[in-house]
Structure formats: structure tokens, C-alpha cells
């Protein structure tokens, strides 16, 4: 019996590629080139599986060009690079890597929020420029995190993990807005209060975005939303570029309509809106919220587990569209 073939679209832990080689014919990408769409289609042609990251867009055109494809396994919890409706319509199982990165991403979101509130990047740049000559009572005064109101937009697993840090570790009041309200059992230990979006924007001292990107969440934070926020508030985005209108945010930061922002994700990344690079009151990081060695390894292992199970007749641990397998009665 011929073994299934898979494409590992980006460089990843060699041990994980080796594990995949025990099951499949593997075409990998050790030089870590980001494929253009036509390169991706050419490399995927004839293959049954793909190990992808957020940089590979799997849309209907790609799926149509690769009719042998059965599984696309994303090494990310977010999957806005997949057209899930198209995958489902064409009988392609899609998987992601939830849970394994929740706490690590929450650590980073909280750290970025703290760095933003306490002006850590801005003050470090000042020190490095050699401008620190004396103490001053108002030098880099920021705003308190402990006891402040933490606003969370998108109260899924990572949002709840950030809320836990705020409520239990820092005595923060937690308010949130989400498509669906948490249960009383989930809200109670955090004393989390469900509010409408406008109230969230008006009341939060520190607003953290943790919602998935979709056409519905595109520019969920734009000029109108920023205008509702307190001038002393901070905004932290560890979700996805495109949820914030970066051009509008750059203006709000420049005009000090909000105090500061912490951004790990950007519209059109790795490009960063030039207006954001010009303002001092923003902490910028290159999409690294899940980047610890242990967590990245867990993500890669989980993506590999999904691929191996799906192509070997097992049960993939974290499917996005499990109805595909139910409809096909298995891997086929
Ligand atoms: C990272 O952004 C992820 O979605 O895992």
C-alpha cells in the first residue's frame, strides 16, 4: 500500500518532521520559504495532507487545484487562513491547535498589557538613547494594573485565562463582551460582568482583544470605538491583525485619545502601519504570544497528531469541521 504524502509548508521542529516521515512521504520546507499561492498549489498537488501555519491560505482555489487533499492541519489555534466552508464543501478535514497554547498566550497578553500600562518599551528606548540623566516625579508615569478594570473582548479560552490572571492575581474588576455569555459558574470565580460592547469600551481601564478574526470582527475596533474609550485607557491586541483598524489606532495614539497600545498582531503583517512605528506610546511585538519553546513544540506535536490520526483512520484530537469525517465515514 502506498503511504500518504504530506506537505509540511513551513520549517518546523526536525523531530516533528521526522515523526511525520514515519507515517508519510514528506515534502518539507527546511529553508522556510513562504510559498506564493501558485507555489503552494504546485507543492500540494497530489498530496493528501498539509501541515500549515497562518502563512498558508487554504481557499477554494487551492482546494480545487488539489482534489486529493483530505486534511489540512494548522499549527495555530486561529484558522482565518482557512476557508472552512470551502474545506467542508470539498470534504477536506481542517484541524487547529487549541488548548495547548492557552496559558502561554494568556501570559503574554497579560505581560503586553502590563508593559503597555507601565510604559516599559517607551522608557527602555529612552534609556538606550542615553537620555536618562536624573529622576523626575512624573517620569514615565503610567496607570495601575492592580485594582483597575480589565475589559476583555472575546471571552473564549484565552480571554478567560487572561481574566483569571487579572481577577485572581491582580485584584482587577473584570468586564467582558462576547458572542455568548459565560455560565454563572464560569463568571462567578472571576466576578466577571457581561456588558455590551459600548459599556466595555467606556469602562475598561485596560482593554484586551482576544476574539477570532472573521469578516464580522474586521475593524471591530476603529475610530468610533476608540473614541468611546477613556483617554487614560490602554488597548492590547493578541488576537489577529484586522480586528483593529491600525490607521485609526495610530491617529488615536498620536492624538493621545487613548493612553497607549500593546500590539502583537497587525493588519497585513509582517508589514506594520507606518503611523504605529512613529508613535512612542505603543509596545510592538512580532506575533509571538504563543512563542515559548514548550508551547511551540506542543502546537507542532498536536498538528502532527491531527494529520497522523486523520490520514491513518484514527480520530483527530482537534478537528474544526468534524462533520467532514462523519459524512465520509472516516479517512477514506
Ligand atoms: C497564533 O496566532 C495562533 O492562532 O495560534
Number of helices: 14
CATH first level of the largest domain: which class?
Alpha Beta
Output the strand order for the largest sheet: 8-7-6-9-10-11-12
Provide mean pLDDT, rounded: 97
Structure description:
The chain is α/β, with parallel strands linked by helices. Helix content is 37%, strand content 14%. A 7-stranded parallel beta sheet has the order 8-7-6-9-10-11-12, sandwiched between helices. Strands 2-1-3-4-5 form a 5-stranded parallel beta sheet. β1, α1 (14-21) and β2 (25-27) form a beta-alpha-beta unit. α1 (14-21) packs parallel to α13 (293-311). It is globular, with a radius of gyration of 22 Å. The mean pLDDT is 97. The structure holds glyoxylic acid. Glyoxylic acid binds next to loops. Glyoxylic acid is lined by residues 76-78, 101, 290.
List key phrases describing it:
332 residues; alpha/beta; Rossmann fold; 2 domains; 7-stranded parallel β-sheet; 5-stranded parallel β-sheet; 14 helices; globular; binds glyoxylic acid
Please sum up the structure shown:
This protein is of the alpha/beta class and 332 residues long. The protein has 14 helices and 12 strands.
Strands, helices and their partners?
Blueprint: E1 5-8, H1 14-21, E2 25-27, H2 37-44, E3 49-52, H3 60-65, E4 71-74, H4 84-89, E5 93-95, H5 102-117, H6 120-128, E6 149-153, H7 157-170, E7 173-177, H8 184-187, E8 193-194, H9 197-203, E9 206-209, H10 223-228, E10 234-237, H11 246-254, E11 260-263, H12 274-278, E12 282-284, H13 293-311, H14 323-328
Parallel strand pairs: 1-2, 1-3, 3-4, 4-5, 6-7, 6-9, 7-8, 9-10, 10-11, 11-12
Helix pairs in contact: 1-13, 5-7
The structure holds glyoxylic acid.
Amino acid at each position: 500500500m502506498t503511504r500518504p504524502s504530506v506537505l509540511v509548508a513551513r520549517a518546523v521542529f526536525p523531530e516533528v518532521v521526522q515523526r511525520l516521515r514515519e507515517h508519510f512521504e514528506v515534502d518539507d520546507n527546511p529553508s522556510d520559504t513562504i510559498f506564493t499561492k501558485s507555489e503552494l498549489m504546485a507543492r500540494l498537488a497530489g498530496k493528501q495532507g498539509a501541515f500549515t501555519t497562518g502563512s498558508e491560505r487554504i481557499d477554494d482555489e487551492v482546494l480545487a487545484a488539489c482534489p486529493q487533499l483530505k486534511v489540512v492541519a494548522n499549527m495555530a489555534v486561529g484558522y482565518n487562513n482557512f476557508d472552512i466552508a470551502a474545506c467542508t464543501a470539498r470534504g477536506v478535514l481542517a484541524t487547529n491547535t487549541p488548548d495547548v497554547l492557552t496559558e502561554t498566550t494568556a501570559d503574554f497578553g497579560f505581560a503586553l498589557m502590563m508593559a503597555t500600562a507601565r510604559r516599559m518599551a517607551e522608557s527602555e528606548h529612552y534609556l538606550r538613547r542615553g537620555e536618562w540623566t536624573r529622576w523626575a516625579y512624573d517620569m514615565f508615569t503610567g496607570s495601575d494594573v492592580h485594582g483597575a478594570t480589565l475589559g476583555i473582548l472575546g471571552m473564549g479560552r484565552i480571554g478567560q485565562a487572561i481574566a483569571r490572571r487579572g481577577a485572581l492575581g491582580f485584584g482587577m474588576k473584570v468586564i467582558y463582551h462576547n458572542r455568548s455569555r459565560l455560565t454563572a459558574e464560569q463568571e462567578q470565580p472571576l466576578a466577571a460582568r457581561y456588558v455590551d460592547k459600548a459599556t466595555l469600551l467606556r469602562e475598561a481601564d485596560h482593554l484586551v482583544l482576544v476574539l477570532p478574526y472573521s469578516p464580522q470582527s474586521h475593524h471591530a475596533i476603529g475610530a468610533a470605538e476608540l473614541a468611546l474609550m477613556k483617554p487614560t485607557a490602554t488597548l492590547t491586541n493578541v488576537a489577529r491583525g484586522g480586528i483593529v483598524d491600525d490607521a485609526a489606532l495610530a491617529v488615536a495614539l498620536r492624538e493621545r485619545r487613548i493612553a497607549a497600545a500593546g500590539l502583537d498582531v497587525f493588519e497585513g503583517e509582517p508589514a506594520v502601519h507606518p503611523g504605529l512605528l512613529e508613535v512612542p506610546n505603543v509596545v510592538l511585538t512580532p506575533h509571538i504570544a504563543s512563542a515559548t519553546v514548550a508551547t511551540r513544540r506542543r502546537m507542532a506535536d498536536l498538528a502532527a497528531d491531527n494529520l497522523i490520526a486523520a490520514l491513518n483512520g484514527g480520530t483527530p484530537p482537534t478537528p474544526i469541521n468534524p462533520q467532514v469525517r462523519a459524512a465520509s465515514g472516516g479517512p477514506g
